[in-house]
Design goal:
Elements: H1 2-24, H2 28-47, H3 52-73, H4 75-83, H5 85-123
Helix pairs in contact: 1-2, 1-3, 2-3, 2-5, 3-4, 3-5
Length: about 120
Amino acid sequence: MKTRNSLLIGIVIGLVLFGFFKFLGLDQTYGGIIGAFIVGILIGKTIGKGSEKYAFFSIFMYNLIGWILVFLLTSDGKIALQYGGIALSALVGILLIMVFFYSIIGSFAAFATSNLSRNKEGQGL
C-alpha cells in the first residue's frame, strides 16, 4: 500500500512540476532533470530500499502522460501530429530517449536518497 500511494503521489507531483515548468517557459530538458531529481528524492525517502524501480516507473509515467497531453492540447503538438511520417516518428523517438534519460536520473536520485537515509539510521542519528 505504501508503494502504491508513493507511485501515485510521485506521478501527480511530477505532472504538477511538468506543467509548472512548461508554464514558466523553462527549457524542458532542465525542467525534466529537476523534476526527476525531486520525484526520485521523494520516492527514495518514502519507500527506502528498492525504491529505484518505483522511481523509474513513476517518472516514466508522468513524462509519458505529460508529453501526450502536450501533443493533444497545444497548437504545436497538433501541428506535429498532423505532419506525420518520418518527422513525427523522429520526434517521438527523441522524446522516448529523453523520458528514459529522466527516469534513469530519478532512479539514481532515489537510490542515493535511500542509501543516505539507511546510513543515517545505522549511525543512530
